[in-house]
Amino acid sequence: MNARRPEPQSLRGRSVVLSPLAPEDVPELFAAIGRPEVFAGGYGGGPAGLPADADAFAAFVESYYPWSTGIPFLVSTEREDGSRVVLGTTSLGDLDVVNRGAHIGWTAYDPRVWATSVNVECKLLLLGLAFDHGFDRVKLQADAMNGRSRAAITKLGAVFEGVLRHDRVRADGSWRDTAVYSILSEEWPAVRSGLESRLAADTRPLPIPS
């Protein structure tokens, strides 16, 4: 039986909302993640891939995110007055309905919400979307040199599969090795339980950027 490709839809968690990324979101997204520290770990091709301005970032969004193979999402939260605060982006892409494979990636957050519940909530929502639509394997990956991202993926409960050597060329022309992880459908109940427990234990208020 094939998996089913999800329709673009908004997903709401305890603190975050994932909504299909739209052109009008791009300026706020640039303000959230168009920062050297975001690209330093290998995002978007590494430090040399950081767009120089808003126009360059808009072109980056158009070319980098998996528009044809999945759903890029805007990650946001709400202030007490109901106004939206953009926190970053993530995608469910590389959707292969025949072989039931998917990929959660293209993820970047405002550095002010690193090491908070934001990533846990996003992964819980996207993994649930993938497995609820019949996908059997969800891939997650990171630049092999990005220890922070690799530790976060491992903490989710993903299984390390190996390193793809010289997987792609970084923006500065150097080679990137890619560390690959995955979660299978039979592992999802335990992973989901772990993510839910982490969220329940994290009672810190979300540091909402001004």
UniProtKB/TrEMBL annotation:
SUPFAM superfamilies: Acyl-CoA N-acyltransferases (Nat). Residues 16-158 form the N-acetyltransferase domain. Pfam families: Acetyltransf_3. Coiled coil: none annotated. This is N-acetyltransferase.
